[in-house]
Amino acid sequence: MGLLVDGVWHNKWYDTKSNQGKFKREEAPLRNWVTADGSAGPTGKSGFKAESNRYHLYVSLACPWAHRTLIFRKLKQLENHISISVVSPDMLDNGWSFDQAAMSSGDHLFNSEYMHQIYTRHDPNYTGRVTVPVLWDKKQQCIVSNESSEIIRMFNSAFNHLTGNTNDYYPAELSKQINQINDLVYHNINNGVYKAGFATTQVAYEQAYNNLFNALDEVEALLARQAYLVGDNLTEADWRLFTTLIRFDSVYFGHFKCNKKPLELYPNISNYIRALYQHPGIAETVNFNHIKRHYYFSHRQINPTQIVPAGPEIDYTREHDRTVVQGN
Ligand SMILES: N[C@@H](CCC(=O)N[C@@H](CS)C(=O)NCC(=O)O)C(=O)O
């Protein structure tokens, strides 16, 4: 784990000392948008037109942020249009790697050894963390974006003319409600588990833990009244929450000490997780080998023995009580 400074890799863990033991996630810096006609998106430059086989997605199957983009690639039938490479779950002194002996697919574009080489290919003097997911433009040989919440919005709509898939997970009339729930989920749950797990003071940990379980209680109450986060249709908000929930009992409960209750004990949340898991195409985007191996093996300051737990055994294919959504 580390970062690039002027294009040179430095092995360094997150700095929590300067922030009262709290983990603070940095903003992703590369924020261009692929659009249907190549015009500029809400941020960044123009020139990234949606074209078949022009873009490549670098992901980790362990990472909840990258998982969102894989889900949208699947839901929006983009698999024949956007190629992918999968990094190894082991994120050690050189950061994400393409070690095929350690479960990586290899880098299909450049045969690189490490993910940081993709960032320096984009900018030889790059400074910053080397995160996944990354959306790469094969035409201009540069990174389009390294922000998952924006990559899924591009996938949601920019390629519709190529795929004919017009399912909309961020419909204009629901955008306000979706943004609102995303806000609660992002700060307290998606990032909340990391704030608990990476905290280096008791106070910072307990604060994150309390915020996390309060937010889960809110979600549990909401899911008692309706099938999904924003009514009866699946939206982006559900997929953003799902990638954290599916990792919860296997990783965050133990490794990140988010152990008030496993999600299996929340009647509505557990049914909801199964409904999303069983949605066509989704189960094949979930890989518990990568997920467990990444966290338990890579975070040596949290788990110095690097032993990967054998359990838990949870059957996500069991029946659920959510209504099946047609169309989306
Ligand atoms: N804001 C980014 C966050 C991505 C992110 O933090 N990914 C993690 C993996 S789960 C990563 O690559 N971390 C490496 C690091 O922080 O050095 C997004 O949502 O795309």
Describe the secondary-structure layout.
Layout: E1 2-5, E2 8-11, E3 55-59, H1 64-75, E4 82-86, H2 116-122, E5 128-129, E6 134-137, E7 142-145, H3 148-157, H4 160-163, H5 175-190, H6 192-198, H7 202-225, H8 236-252, H9 267-277, H10 288-298
Parallel strand pairs: 3-4
Antiparallel strand pairs: 1-2, 1-5, 3-6, 6-7
This protein binds glutathione (GSH).
Glutathione is lined by residues 1, 28, 63, 65, 129-133, 146-149.
Describe the protein's architecture and organization.
The chain is α+β, with helices and mostly antiparallel strands. The protein has two domains: 2-163, 3-Layer(aba) Sandwich (Glutaredoxin); 172-279, Up-down Bundle (Glutathione S-transferase Yfyf (Class Pi), Chain A, domain 2). It is 36% helix and 9% strand. The chain is built from ten helices and seven strands. The chain has a four-stranded mixed β-sheet with strand order 4-3-6-7, sandwiched between helices. It has a three-stranded antiparallel β-sheet with strand order 2-1-5, with no helix packed on it. A hairpin with a 2-residue loop joins strand 1 and strand 2. The protein is globular, with a radius of gyration of 19 Å. Bound molecules: glutathione. The site of glutathione (GSH) has 13 residues, from helix 3. InterPro entries: Glutathione-S-Trfase_C-like (IPR010987), Glutathione-S-Trfase_C_sf (IPR036282), Glutathione_S-Trfase (IPR040079), Glutathione_S-Trfase_N (IPR004045), GST_Omega-like_C (IPR047047), GST_Omega/GSH (IPR016639), Thioredoxin-like_sf (IPR036249). GO terms for molecular function: glutathione transferase activity. Pfam families: GST_C_2, GST_N_2. Residues 171-295 form the GST C-terminal domain.
